[in-house]
Specification:
Enzyme class: translocase
CATH topology of the largest domain: Calcium-transporting ATPase, transmembrane domain
Distance between the termini: 64 Å
CATH class of the largest domain: Mainly Alpha
Number of strands: 50
Radius of gyration: 36 Å
Strand content: 15-25%
Shape: globular
Family: Belongs to the cation transport ATPase (P-type) (TC 3.A.3) family. Type V subfamily.
Membrane topology: Multi-pass membrane protein
Number of helices: 36
CATH architecture of the largest domain: Up-down Bundle
Subcellular location: Membrane
Number of domains: 7
CATH superfamily of the largest domain: Calcium-transporting ATPase, transmembrane domain
Keywords: ATP-binding, Magnesium, Membrane, Metal-binding, Nucleotide-binding, Phosphoprotein, Translocase, Transmembrane, Transmembrane helix
Strand order of the largest sheet: 27-49-48-47-28-40-46-45-41-42-50
Amino acid sequence: MHCGISFSLPFTPDPVYWECGRVTKDDCEVGLLLESDSEQIPLLHGSYSTCHNCLTKRYANPVAVQVTPHSRTGRKETFKGMSTQAAHSTHITVDDENLYLWGYKTNKIKTALTWIITVLTLGTFRLLLYWYPRWWVKCTASGCSLSTADCLLIQNANMDVAFRPVLCIVSDSVVQMGLPVSGFRMVDVSTLRYFTFKKLTHLWYPDENRFISTDSLDVDIDFHRFHVLAEKGLSSDDIAKRLAVYGKNIIDINLKPLHVLLFREVLSPFYIFQLFSVAVWFSDHYEIYASVIVAMSLFSIAMDLYQTRKQERKLRSMVHSSAFVQVLRNGENPMKISSEELLPGDVILIPPNGCNMQCDAVLINGTVIVNESMLTGESVPVTKAALPDTDDESSVFSLKKHSRHTLFCGTQVLQTRYYAGKSVKAVVLRTAYTTLKGQLVRSIMYPKPVDLRFTSDLFKFIGFLGCIAFCGFSYTIVTMILRGTDVRAVIVRALDIITVVIPPALPAAMSVGILASQMRLHRKDIYCIAPSTINTCGAINVVCFDKTGTLTEDGLDFHSVCPVVQSNNKEPLFRHEFPSLNVKEMWNYRKLVEAVSTCHSLTCINGLLCGDPLDLILFKNTTWTLDETMNSRIEETARFDILAPPVVRSVPGACGCDREIELAILRQFTFSSSLQRMSVIVHDPEDESHDMTLYCKGAPEMIASLCQPSSIPANYSNVVNDYAQHGYRLIAVAYKKLHISFPKSQRVNREQVENDLTLLGLVTMENRLKAQTVGVIHQLNKAHIRTVMVTGDNILTALSVARECGIIQPVKKAYIVECGNRDSPNSRIPLLLKQAASSSEDLLDDSSSVYDMESRSFIDPAYQLSVSGPTFEVISREYPELLLKFVTVCDVFARMSPEQKQMVVNKLQEVEYTVAMCGDGANDCAALKAAHAGISLSEAEASIAAPFTSRIPDIRCVPMIIREGRAALVTSFGIFKYMASYSLTQFISVVLLYWLATNLTDFQFLFIDLFLVTTVAACFGYTPPCQKLAAFPPPTKLLSFASLLSIVGQLLIVFVFQLSVFIYTSAQPWFVPYSTPFGISVEDKRSMQGTAVFCLSCFQYLTLAVIYSRGPPYRKTIFSNTSLCTCLVILISICVWLTINPPYFVARHMQYDPLPELGYRIFILVVAFNYILCAYLYETGVIEYLILTLREKWRKKHSVETDADMLNKNEKILLSISSSPNWIPSAAEESSDHFGLYSFSNSSHIKCC
């Protein structure tokens, strides 16, 4: 039916439903697949057209329109972002992840039929439903509206499917249920319907016909509402309602029962196939090899269970936390309760001497000094201010905007300050898994699935082997039935050939290389808790580093001070730098010393100075002292809103001064990352003029813009650039005399006083790199592995360290992307592109953006970007079309929150990078878990999330892990090709012998499977990696043309030689044809052709092992693997012995039909030698030279566009933007028509790095 409707949907997160449409995977951006036209489907913003019941999405300008389509029934319906009736499906967004929900109601008849079929199929049908949850839902429930559903089918954008029941709580005479609504209020409902998914509760709102997560309910709360709650706290009725909705405030990791873990492990397709194979072998009296496979499987299962339980316990011990807290409830006196009983809306009292926060809470009064290292990674005390009490309608609380008023779960309260005898109150905002700490834990528990092409190719190839097995299965049945074989033998032989083609030992064999790499890493003090990740490390092409504690030592070091000499008659000049502020010569520059002594945000906690590490280092270098009150009888915790200002005093003799100087800090303008400066208003009590002084410090280019030009030395830019290029952190210091009164100093705006300054000088700091950092970064750069810094520190420090260690390269221009001011309410925030200090000019050259066809990788772009967290958030929100381009060329991400670090990793993965993350703090956990390979340098919180934990306290472990990963990946490729070739070689032997109605004997099978293949496979992975990182990673595509041609070609060679021996043996004069004795089973009989094929095939198995055991550039040569070489020498000797002159007892146990002529047995050795020669020449001459080398040389002669379709996503992006950053303004201009008018500035400033 042709609907003939076209319409557009607004840019809104709320879905619009269309009842008569059908979307397929290719039509929808999120890959949503519906199975019947009657199901309602959520549509995203964009333009749509309907034709023949299909909705085809077209990208167009999102415009806000009211949609009034006609349905198939002719009834006109109005859509305004949400259907007016409860739909069968919907979508919700949780943690930036789209979840698609379908409602179902349990059908007793369907469920009964499902279990009957399960019983009739001996559980096979239920096993299939376990593997495919969507089928289980379809077989046991019927589709219905979400309002009546008792179970939900949940699917994410990665097509992962889950099944969750919808639970109901019915109100009674004792407890009335309630639903949270805006403004922190509850409305009464008769029934509370909800479901839980990934530790979050989702409530059903009948008026809106949708589920809403409890982590998104703290919206539309005005400031005054918090203060109203703080007066009396929650009532008993509120407590009962909120407890039913939010549950207990516990972040706990439940230990799954061992039997559950066991069943999940055993019911995987791999172990089910192993169980099938073992059953076939035992029924065929092939007990020895079957027992070996069972023992290997049991060991593997036991190790997996051990590692899983160990990780659960470790995570549980590190995240579980509880304490007793004081709360106000029912307007009564404070009462002490367990933190597990806290509920949103509770009023808690913060102890004066600190505590660990057990929830997210909004500060109502006083000030609180908090250590937020769990969030930022920097142990810098942060002062939290009380939320203002205002009735202004525009004063609506936002967690992001008002974080300075919020105390976050997991952070440490160091001290509170308020009026003496008064309590510091906070209102609980979020509890349990909805808190910031809970989000971090959930990101560890439910990471984004990591996809490696190798794994998907592996299953595809196993599917291909399955097709071959089916052909062999059919061939066996037909040939044996035609010969009149009994039914049991037909079934056993047909099933047995499946186990021949698809070797059950394949996964165990492929783990050999991984286990060998894991053992080598363990000897280097690098521990891996997820061995499967080692293979992934072989494909790593981007490594993200945290800065503090990872690339650098903790903290900054004072380097020097460079004062400016101001003269009335001469130009201002820089004097020689001094190594300290506490030297006699600095008395000539007293203003500079006073500025450093007063311009800071330090505070005293329990008698100890605390604050920004940079301020601490500078202040301690002056040797001055800080006194925050002139009355020592006032406790620190009561120093709130006091009139006596903080005072700094010099020590007699310090800085060349022979008397004590006392300065009072009257006003402080705190540091702002957007303004890049801070300042203080200071008064000297001994100053007879009673004037005041403004001291200001900040980024050199910002301070220079605020200073009088006459006070700036002519070589200022050169000095700044010179320091920056040497990796120093620069701070410019200036001052200004203020002729204002004390009352006015408390009211004046910073913009009124932070101008017309006089430059005092520059202070240089260095964030010392760890000794190994530069060498490792150089090693990674040389191997064409991109290095990225993702840190919580400020962008200037990050850029300085990045340039010093080599992440920012001196041959490239570096730019900082910043935010401007919004021009109008309907415009986007403009972006500012500022050039950072660089070691050379005019570096951008279109010719530098070329493609190296031989290496199959782009040369690095000609420029590098850096961005701070707030700007990154703006780009993510308002410039989503540029985000993937940014992460492709941005190498420094500063001031990043844990969620933003994780987002950077996810976006890098989205453009098809294989990402490693190296960090050492709790704020790195989410990124460590999200990365393909997380590497923790700490055994504390970060080790929970990271597959790798290094006891080496620097980044030397990174290239070690990558080298081992590459060796393991190459080993996995080799062992897979070897095991596949071994199984198909054996399949060829069996098919040839089935033609005679015979087979290899049990002991011949055992010799091949156990003594040859298993022994070789066990030694295969012990070839160590090369010491040098190769320029490019090994291929990750198993089903490449070269790999497939190698396997197919080798098998053709195997087939030709086996067939030749098979036919040639039958042509010998002494040959006795095989005949089946009456009453004796086929598999127990011997044949001369079987003996000849067996002897030749033994050499083929060993030859394939040598061919596929590749060495450089990722592994050392096969001769470095002494165990494999020794094994091969012994096995070849045994095979020669068995072929030439096997002893009688060996021949009897091997069930040989001996070949009578010695000359023919020697002939088999000659054939084997010729096979070895042909196989080796084919692999080296045809595959490695003709296919790989010559093809790459041919490609190198052709243009990039010829192979553009073969490039991955990041390479295609780099191809278009790598020459210059002009794509930023052009991309913005192209989008201006869609989002209103805005500007984009591209300005070059003096930038300190």
